[in-house]
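Input record (one chain):
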Amino acid sequence: MPLSLGISGANVHDSQGLEPLVRGIPPIRSRRGPRRRRPTKLHADKGYDYDHLRRWLRERGIRHRIARKGIESSTRLGRHRWVVERTVSWLAGCRRLHRRYERKAEHFLAFVGIAAALIGYRRLTG
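The corresponding structure, as predicted from the sequence alone:
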């Protein structure tokens, strides 16, 4: 289920969107104990292999599993990555989002939010 959403320009690297997206994850209520304010673990591919991102995650107590460029293969992340790819394909299945018709970014982000809410509703009821 999508926990946090964001849009950016086509010429912006994915690694620049990691911090705002992780900050945008709302507190999650659990049955026991206090609300979780951050994820416990983050899986990412080689596009996020930067020391400042690793340091930022470590400072927040988030364990990371980021494939290193030139050292590790990102095939081990495949079992976790397919979840993200599946969710992106669900979002692309919404005709309004498949092609960006809106000129304003706020309108497009609103439609992405509606689509994510529908995806969450379908997952919870079905």
